[in-house]
Amino acid sequence: MGLSQTLLVYALVCVHFGVSQHYLRLRPSPSDHLPVPDLKEDPDPEYDPREQDLAERTLRKKLGSNFDPNFMSISLPMLVNHSAPDNQVKLQGPMPNEIKKLDLSETPYGKRVKVGKKARRKFLQWLWTYTHCPVVYTWKDLGVRFWPRYIKEGNCFSERSCSFPEGMSCKPVKSINKIFLRLRRGVHGGVTNCTVSPGVSGSVWTARCSAPSQGF
Questions:
Q1: Would you say 202 and 177 are in contact if contact means Cβ atoms under 8 Å apart?
Q2: SS3 sequence, 48-78?
Q3: Domain range spanning residue 184?
Q4: What CA–CA distance (Å, rounded) separates 109 from 82?
Q5: Is pTM, for the whole model, over 0.85?
C-alpha cells in the first residue's frame, strides 16, 4: 500500500474516532422533535371555506409581510419535488472550519507525514461531500383550509450513512417557522361565516451527521 493510500485510510479512521467528538461539541445537537408533525384537522367538509372566502387580495393583505414566496405558493408549483439523487446534491456555503482545519500531517503516535496541497485539498473536499447532510425540499399540500395552500417542506437526506465506518446518519438540527392563514367555517351567533386565524408550519432548515439515539 502506497503512502497516499495509507494516509487516506488513516485520515478516515481518525476523522471518525477523533474528530467526530469534536463535531459534537461545536455543532448544534440534533432534535428528536423534528420534523414538525402534520397539522390535525376535522375531516368534516362542513368546516371547509367556500369560494368567496378565498379572495386572494383579502387573504394576502391579512397575511402581510409573512407571505414568503420562497416557501409558500397559492397554486401547485410546477417543480413539485426539489429532491435530488445523492450524487447530484450540491454543497452549499463555505467548507466547515472543523474540516478545513484538520491536521492530516500528524499521526496518533506523533510521527509526521508529508501531505501535498493538492492531495489535502482533494481529501478535504471528499470528506466534506461524504459527511454533508443536505436538506431536500418538497411542496406539501396543506389542504383547502390553509392559505397559502402549498408550503415547501424540508427533510433530511438520509438514504445512506454519513460517517466512516458506517453507523451515523443525517438528523435535523434546526427548523424555521412560517406563518400562514387557517380558514374554518362555523356558526357564530346563528350566522355561518369563515374565521381566519394565523397558523404556524415548521420546516427543517439544517441537518448534521449524528450517532443513533440511545434508548434506556
A1: yes
A2: CCCHHHHCHHHHHHHHHHHCCCCCEECCCCC
A3: 31-84+135-209
A4: 46
A5: no
